[in-house]
Design brief:
The complex is a heterodimer of chains A (about 130) and B (about 110). Chain A has no helices and 11 strands. With about 130 residues, chain A is mainly β. In chain A, a hairpin with a 4-residue loop joins strand 7 (about 70-75) and strand 8. In chain B, a hairpin with a 6-residue loop joins strand 11 (about 90-95) and strand 12. The chains are: A mainly beta (about 130), B mainly beta (about 110). At the A-B interface, strand 5 and strand 10 of A face strand 7 and strand 12 of B.
């Protein structure tokens, strides 16, 4: 069974940094792209980053580009999100998400995010 | 960016009745190479992460009850719950994975009337 377990959330001051981690199990981690998706309190879903199976390619929306960095360690089945210059509007629950394929290697069989973790909460406040 | 707009924002349906949610994308999400629409539907119950229901606009994920169905193409899509059950109370999101940035609809809250 596929399992994703996030950790690393907490309270951080504006301008601060935080690193989220996601431990993956139940699938061949390196064969799949992975993403982070966040949800502000009482709000909808916002995609914040994606990374290829190899870790060599990544993508971000403008809202976090230059402040967030996604990475992975395929030897440890771990996904990370390094967040810096944090703002109040980054307050959210952050979900680790498994993509249905490594879409950087081909798009035809890709069908989006198929598994989500339970999430970890990040609060940016002074 | 592709903007996803759902309607309505909320709806209340009697048990056993049909629930219909619309999703409109600001541009086509039809991938010409395979003629598939890169549109998914997720269900999110309170306190839980989203769960994949439908992908490629109309393909039901394994284990999802047959009362959930998706339809539509290009820019206009529909999620239908044919006979609402109590456990279907949730917020439903459409999502385009055609291009980045990936975007979601604002969500539709389904309740029991």
């Amino acid at each position: 069974e596929v399992h994703l377990l996030e950790s690393g959330g907490g309270l951080v001051q504006p301008g601060g940094s935080l690193r989220l981690s996601c431990a993956a199990s139940g699938f061949i981690f390196s064969k799949y792209a992975m993403s982070w998706v966040r949800q502000a309190p009482g709000k909808g879903l916002e995609w914040v980053s994606a990374i290829s199976g190899s870790g060599y390619s990544a993508d971000y929306p403008d809202s976090v580009k230059g402040r967030f960095t996604i990475s992975r360690d395929n030897s440890k089945n771990m996904l990370y999100l390094q967040m810096s210059s944090l703002r109040a509007e980054d307050t959210a629950r952050y979900y680790c998400a498994k993509e249905s394929s490594d879409f950087w290697r081909g798009y035809s069989n890709y069908y989006g995010i198929d598994v989500w973790g339970q999430g970890t909460t990040v609060t940016v406040s002074s | 960016d592709i903007v996803m707009t759902q309607s309505p924002d909320s709806l209340a349906v009697s048990l056993g009745e049909r629930a219909t949610i619309k999703c409109k994308s600001s541009q086509s999400v039809l991938y010409s190479s395979n003629n598939k629409n890169y549109l998914a539907w997720y269900q999110q119950k309170p306190g839980q992460p989203p769960k994949l229901l439908i992908y490629w606009a109309s393909t039901r994920e394994s284990g999802v009850p047959a009362r959930f169905s998706g339809s539509g193409s290009a820019t206009d899509f529909t999620l239908t719950i044919s006979s609402l059950q109590a456990e279907d109370v949730a917020v439903y999101y459409c999502h385009q994975y055609y291009t980045t940035p990936r975007t979601f609809g604002q969500g539709t809250k389904v309740e029991i009337k």
